[in-house]
Amino acid sequence: MNIDSIRQIPLVDFLNHLGYQPTGRDSKGLWFYSPYRNERKPSFHVNPRKNLWYDFGSGAGGDIFNLARELTGEIDFIKRAEFIAQKMQLAVEKPYKPMPFKEEPTFENVEISRLEAPALLKYLADRGIPRDIAQRYCVQVNYRLHGKDYYAIGFENNAHGFELRNSFFKGSYPPKHITHISNGNDRCNVFEGFIDFLSAERLGYNDGTDTIVLNSVSNLNKAIAPLREYSVVSCYLDNDNAGRSALVKLQQELGDKVMDKSALYPNNKDLNDFLCQREQCQTKGLSNAECSQERREAHHLMSLYPKQTTKSKLKL
C-alpha cells in the first residue's frame, strides 16, 4: 500500500466501490448522495479533474483521505489509508526488496520545436498523414542519447512527456501518460497510439469530438476516470489481442456507452493500416469494395504459401 498511489485513486472509482453512483452532472463534476449521512436530495459533489469532493449539506470536503475520515471517524492517517485500501481491494505493500539495477536511456539536450524536418514529415506522409495535420498536433524533438544526436516526431501527453517516432526509433521521452484532447464535447474517441489518432483526423472521424490517446494499452487505467465523464466512448483500437482486451476492459468499466469502431477496418491491423490501404486504392483508381477484395485475396494467398522460417529452411 503506497500513500501516494492511494491519494491518486479517482474519487468516482472509490465511491463506486462503496456502492454509490452519480445521480447527475454539471459543468464542473458529478453529484452523489452523501456516503456518510442520509439525505433526500444529492448534495455531495465530486470534481474528477481535481479529484476533490465537497458536501454542500455538511460543509465538509477535501481529498480521498478526508472522505475516509468522514466515513470512519478515524483520526489516524494510516488507519484511514488501510480502510481505503481494503475497500479498493489493493494489495498491501510488501517489505522492501532491492531490485537489480537496470540502466534506463538518458535523454540529454532535449529541444522542442515546430515539426519541419523533411525526413520526419515524409515518414508521416508515407503513412497518409499530411503536413497540416502533422504540424497541428505534433512537434519536433531533438535530443542526445548515448552520446549521439537524434530527432523525432513528438506527441505530447498529459504529463508533458512525449511519444517519439522516426524511421528508426519508436519510444517515448518520460514520463509516460495518456493524451487527453478536450474540445468540450460529450463524446470521446479512444485510440491506442497517436498515428491512429492522426489517421482519424485525416479520415474525418474525429469531427470535433474529444479524444484520448492511450499511448500504450498499459495506460488504460489512467483513461477510465476521464472517460466516465462522456455519454459516448468510441474505440478505434487495434485488431489484435491487446486491442480486444482493452475494449473488453472499457466495456466492463463503462458499460453500454462504449462503442467498438474496429468494424470500420475489419481486414486491417489498425486504423493507420486502413488509411494507407485506402490511399493506395485511390492511387490505383479502385473503389473501397474492390480494394478490400484485393486485400482479402492477398491474405488468402499468404495463408496458402506462408513464409518459411529460417529453421524450416535449415531442415531442408
Written description of the protein model:
The chain is α+β, with helices and mostly antiparallel strands and 316 residues long. The protein has three domains: 3-87, Alpha-Beta Complex (DNA Primase, Chain A), CATH 3.90.580.10; 107-173, no CATH class; 179-264, Dna Topoisomerase Vi A Subunit, Chain: A, domain 2. Helices cover 37% and strands 21% of the residues. It contains twelve helices and 15 strands. It has helices at residues 3-7, 11-17, 64-72, 77-87, 118-125, 131-137, 194-203, 220-227, 241-254, 271-284, 288-304, 310-315; strands at residues 24-25, 30-32, 44-47, 52-55, 61-62, 107-114, 139-145, 148-156, 162-165, 170-173, 179-181, 187-191, 210-213, 232-236, 258-260. The strands form three sheets. A five-stranded antiparallel beta sheet has the order 1-2-3-4-5, with helices on one face. A hairpin with a 2-residue loop joins strand 7 (139-145) and strand 8. The longest helix is centred in the C-terminal third of the chain and has 17 residues, at 288-304. It starts with a helix and ends with a helix.
* CATH topological fold name of the largest domain: Dna Topoisomerase Vi A Subunit, Chain: A, domain 2
Classification by helices and strands: alpha+beta
**Biggest sheet, strands in spatial order?**
1-2-3-4-5
Query: Helical stretch count?
Result: 12
What is the averaged pLDDT score? Answer: 86
Give the SSE string. HHEEEEEHHEHHEEEEEEHEHEHEHHH
Report the sheet with the most strands, covering strand number, pairing sense and barrel closure.
5 strands, antiparallel
Which ranges are low-confidence, i.e. pLDDT below 50, for 5 or more consecutive residues?
A: 307-316
Q: Round the Cα radius of gyration to an integer and report it.
A: 24 Å
- Strand tally: 15
- CATH class category label of the largest domain: Alpha Beta
Percent of sequence in beta strands: 15-25%
Work out the count of structural domains: 3
Rounded to the nearest angstrom, the distance between the terminal CA atoms is 56 Å
* Shape assignment: globular
Helix proportion: 25-40%
